[in-house]
């Protein structure tokens, strides 16, 4: 396995020598990419001696090999340790001002980040936001250890022990490729139903759970197509993206792709209704009237269509139910009823609302079978939730 170890400028950099040796002793190829400031703590000669490979920090080194792109493309695993507040901020911002950040931006492999900084830096809202951003994008960010820091300080921010970092990283890479050879089609984001050339009816979906499922499916060896409605979440590399705007467009794309799909996951927040009439010109305010009446018509039930017309060769279909409780019942009550109506193999139920579900880095879901019976409840980052869902998909596929 080709492992890239990124070292940023913290005093804990000396511990990473043991991490490099850990990977080397297991027979892995290790490429160390330090930042320029980290060389104040551990010099390039140390990294070259331990890794057996030349060390550089600049995108202008080995330009003929285009290494600032090639290294990330070829890596099977990237581990950044210590990850200072500075490197976390630069990666979250998408910077490419040195070889390490450029490598991260071109990589499609799992990336593990092991933070190390003073407690105040770790607890700072800026760092917390940057860590949340990385986790939302699929980075595997470890929590720092608690203990003695530089000088007399103690607290959260200590670099985890090298063997713990190595074991954490190898556990992620070691996930079984249980979806290898399968084509997974995922819908993501929220549909927009046009009202006039300016306005539309939409929802708050960011597409993050769908892109997290895409990333998780890639990690498990699948070929992934993402049917993308309106969304703000970044799409992982190596994913085929098919755009779709309205519910009718999304329906058309999904029906086109269904025959070649081994797994279909309907994560997109599809509008239940659309305007009955599209205005060719912008709707103006009418003098003397404070109201506007818009007639709506029901959109097709895409998930029901897919389950009714599924191919006979063991196609697995997963639906999502973003629900709120009401006077008739709670979220799970509505989810169970929907599972019985839709006919999907799995229905993932999650509560949505203010700061829940849409646009958040974390999620909490209950996975139901086709009879509405709970198979499990899971919460965590949306990537962790994605893997829990795919665990159930793999279980069905293995029958």
Supply the number of helical segments: 13
Proportion of beta-strand residues: 15-25%
Going by CATH, the homologous superfamily of the largest domain would be CoaB-like
CATH architecture of the largest domain: 3-Layer(aba) Sandwich
Structural class, judged by helices and strands? alpha/beta
Query: Could you give the count of β-strands?
Result: 19
Largest sheet: 8 strands, mixed
Distance between the termini: 31 Å
- For the largest sheet, list the strands in their spatial order: 12-11-8-13-16-17-18-19
Mean pLDDT: 91
Q: Give unreliable regions as ranges.
A: none
* Principal-axes shape call: elongated
Work out the helicity level. Answer: 25-40%
Quickly name the level 1 CATH class of the largest domain.
Answer: Alpha Beta
Would you write up a description of this structure?
The chain has 2 domains: 172 residues, Flavin prenyltransferase-like (Rossmann fold); 215 residues, CoaB-like (Rossmann fold), CATH 3.40.50. 32% of the residues lie in helices and 24% in strands. The protein is built from 13 helices and 19 strands. The strands form 5 sheets. An 8-stranded mixed β-sheet has the order 12-11-8-13-16-17-18-19, sandwiched between helices. Helix 3 crosses helix 5, helix 4 packs across helix 7 and helix 9 packs across helix 13. The longest helix has 16 residues. The protein is elongated. The two termini are 31 Å apart. The mean pLDDT is 91.
Please provide a brief summary of the model.
The protein is α/β, with parallel strands linked by helices and 399 residues long. It has 13 helices and 19 strands. The chain has two domains: 2-173, Rossmann fold (3-Layer(aba) Sandwich); 183-397, Rossmann fold.
